[in-house]
């Protein structure tokens, strides 16, 4: 027996069922998707990628060997507590491993913190030119991002404190900041932490902390160790050269750590990532070589750019923010296109409210010299 199907034009629709459809949270529809750094250009030949602040020295050889060895156990679930990694971090920095949370990149920690502490309509404060992921994570959790203005492209502690309302639940501050490279001295960071209400969580994002060589700087570990509402997050993607493995970690009060363990995935860090990151943490020599590379090339590259007449924001990280005056044809978009023609990839800054600036990683000397040559031609100074 067969049953005939009426033609579509004869099908009767219930107007109520027509209007019933999956609806995302309203705040999610406000999100402007994150735009990562460009990673390729068309054509053939060597490419210099200076768009994502990756380490030009790559990962520690010990980390690579540890990851290869971990490949023998790919059929097994990883340690859900990432115990080996937490213990390695604890040894390196003199921290209690029980107060450390490991994650699939620091992005996951940012999302978990928003998920844990933001309810619908609660506020998260960040600076105008702060990391885009903070606002995305807040909106995803139903929160409301509040942007504070900066002074000389540096976080303004007084502006942040003035923006606090009864709905504020989180404050994110990247120190050094991405994409500006500027930092807040420890005295001001402490003043911020002490000035916030005790029910507001201060998140210090110290992704670039290892690169900083300033006497008045601190990653925030001291505050996270002693204050009940301060956490510090770090990453293995930058100086450790493990961006592809996606590994981050957080240190903070036991109560906040307990909350994050309740909501994170039970196997959120893979076995190879745990093994590689633990080995990287123990290879202090590789970190020191990466710091030396940056300490040598960062000031040299900055001086060379300024000699060409370009404005460069002073940076304490492994990148520089270069500004173009938008006169005589000197625009960031033109510079970016000229660099792409030379197979050099940098980062445009429109999404960070800096449309006439480029962020450039301190890569190899070869890559930086090639970049300077393009700028010299573009500016008529070759």
UniProtKB/TrEMBL annotation:
<keyword id="KW-0663">Pyridoxal phosphate</keyword>
<protein>
    <recommendedName>
        <fullName>Histidinol-phosphate aminotransferase</fullName>
        <ecNumber>2.6.1.9</ecNumber>
    </recommendedName>
</protein>
<comment type="similarity">
    <text>Belongs to the class-II pyridoxal-phosphate-dependent aminotransferase family. Histidinol-phosphate aminotransferase subfamily.</text>
</comment>
<dbReference type="InterPro" id="IPR015424">
    <property type="entry name" value="PyrdxlP-dep_Trfase"/>
</dbReference>
<keyword id="KW-0808">Transferase</keyword>
<comment type="subunit">
    <text>Homodimer.</text>
</comment>
<keyword id="KW-0028">Amino-acid biosynthesis</keyword>
<comment type="pathway">
    <text>Amino-acid biosynthesis; L-histidine biosynthesis; L-histidine from 5-phospho-alpha-D-ribose 1-diphosphate: step 7/9.</text>
</comment>
<keyword id="KW-0368">Histidine biosynthesis</keyword>
<dbReference type="InterPro" id="IPR050106">
    <property type="entry name" value="HistidinolP_aminotransfase"/>
</dbReference>
<dbReference type="InterPro" id="IPR015422">
    <property type="entry name" value="PyrdxlP-dep_Trfase_small"/>
</dbReference>
<dbReference type="InterPro" id="IPR015421">
    <property type="entry name" value="PyrdxlP-dep_Trfase_major"/>
</dbReference>
<feature type="region of interest" description="Disordered">
    <location>
        <begin position="39"/>
        <end position="60"/>
    </location>
</feature>
<feature type="modified residue" description="N6-(pyridoxal phosphate)lysine">
    <location>
        <position position="238"/>
    </location>
</feature>
<dbReference type="GO" id="GO:0004400">
    <property type="term" value="F:histidinol-phosphate transaminase activity"/>
</dbReference>
<feature type="domain" description="Aminotransferase class I/classII large">
    <location>
        <begin position="47"/>
        <end position="371"/>
    </location>
</feature>
<dbReference type="Pfam" id="PF00155">
    <property type="entry name" value="Aminotran_1_2"/>
</dbReference>
<dbReference type="InterPro" id="IPR005861">
    <property type="entry name" value="HisP_aminotrans"/>
</dbReference>
<dbReference type="GO" id="GO:0000105">
    <property type="term" value="P:L-histidine biosynthetic process"/>
</dbReference>
<dbReference type="GO" id="GO:0030170">
    <property type="term" value="F:pyridoxal phosphate binding"/>
</dbReference>
<keyword id="KW-0032">Aminotransferase</keyword>
<dbReference type="InterPro" id="IPR004839">
    <property type="entry name" value="Aminotransferase_I/II_large"/>
</dbReference>
